[in-house]
Automatic annotation (TrEMBL):
Belongs to the ArsC family. Keywords: Arsenical resistance, Oxidoreductase. The gene is arsC. This is Arsenate reductase. Its EC number is 1.20.4.1. It catalyses: [glutaredoxin]-dithiol + arsenate + glutathione + H(+) = glutathionyl-S-S-[glutaredoxin] + arsenite + H2O. NCBIfam families: arsC. The keyword Nuclease does not apply. One of its GO terms (molecular function) is arsenate reductase (glutaredoxin) activity. Transmembrane segments: none annotated. CDD domains: ArsC_ArsC.
Length: 114
């Protein structure tokens, strides 16, 4: 079973979901805007993907600037707290398969774990 942390309004996320389905994967779709992740879940997912918390945060959202999240002095814990409070800040899609976890941006990154 593969898991995709998905935003159906995101074209990249839809493309990756389709790639998983086309590859024959049974996919659990987690719409993280409807079912937000807790801070510890976010931290585990980010670590498993081998990325930094900064790489996992979506800087293009207005709330990113409004909260001053571009401040380099903010700790990972402070960034995770912001992501927990505002799930739209989670960069997507993040995919988990038996071959690993990746932030699939760009979409073809999913091929590494298919």
């Amino acid at each position: 079973m593969s898991v995709i942390y998905h935003n159906p309004r995101c074209g990249t996320s839809r493309t990756v979901l389709q790639a998983l389905q086309d590859a024959g994967h049974a996919v659990e779709v987690v719409e993280y805007l409807k079912t937000p992740l807790k801070r510890d879940e976010l931290a585990r997912l980010i670590a498993a993907a081998g990325i930094t918390v900064r790489e996992a945060i979506r800087s293009k959202e207005a709330i990113y600037s409004e909260l001053g999240l571009d401040n380099p002095d903010l700790s990972d814990d402070e960034l995770l707290q912001a992501m927990e409070a505002h799930p739209i800040l989670m960069n997507r899609p993040i995919v988990v398969t038996d071959k690993g976890t990746r932030l699939c941006r760009p979409a073809d990154v999913v091929n590494e774990i298919l």
